[in-house]
Amino acid sequence: MEQKKMAIIATKGSLDWGYPPFILGSTAAALGYEVEIFFTFYGLQLLKKDLNHLRVTPLGNPGMPMPGGMEKWMPVLVTALPGMEAMMTSMMKKQMKAKGVASLEELRELSQEADVRFIACNMTVELFDMQPSDFIDGIELAGAARFFEFAGDSDICMYI
Fold first, then answer.
1. How far is CA 141 from the centre of its chain?
2. Are 95 and 70 in a shared domain?
3. CA distances from 106 to 1, 41, 143 (A)
4. Helix (H, G, I), strand (E, B) or coil at 155
5. Are residues 91 and 133 in the same domain?
6. H-helix or E-strand containing 157?
7. 46 and 121: one domain?
8. Of the candidates 102, 125, 141, which is a domain's last residue?
9. Does 109 lie in the same domain as 46?
10. Residues 39, 68: one domain?
11. What is the pLDDT of residues 68-126, one digit of tens each?
């Protein structure tokens, strides 16, 4: 029987959107899937050596639960106030730590240890004037055509 394949396109570069590609990728790899994640546009932030710059943005995220049910009465406009992003990021990190959720760095390392391949979109790297030295070791720089070679034969393809 041929090994199943899972292709993921990661386009978001915020703290909260960083979790899905690494959780799904590492889980699929643990279940025996061959996994490749194509990081493009803001998703490239997830490949940087230091992830401390990642934030949670509550603006435009009406489904984000807030402590004490604040989401039921707090107008969306309040989330645009200065300091709200830093506050929400701090709250999210504290909640994750309290619940024993692995850090993004840990999940990224786990994914690489499970042989999940990380592909950085070369066009986007050039577009944003990034350098390969900005990224962690073990990634491949390639274009969309290279990703389609894998994704075209995948059993599951996800856009995150």
1. 17
2. yes
3. 32, 22, 27
4. coil
5. no
6. strand 156-159
7. yes
8. 102
9. yes
10. no
11. 666 555 655 566 667 777 877 888 888 888 989 999 999 999 999 999 999 999 999 99
pTM attached to this predicted model = 0.87
Q: Which residues of 94-127 are buried (b: 16+ CB within 10 A; e: fewer)?
A: eebeeeeeeebeebbbbbbeeebbbbbbbebbee
Are residues 119 and 40 in contact, defined by beta-carbon separation less than 8 angstroms? no
Q: Which two tokens stand for residue 9?
A: 């396109």
Length of the chain equals 160
How far apart CA 101 and CA 28 sit, in angstroms, is 18
Domain range enclosing 84: 55-102
Domain co-membership, 111 together with 82: no
Number of structural domains in the chain: 2
**What is the model's pLDDT at position 65?**
62
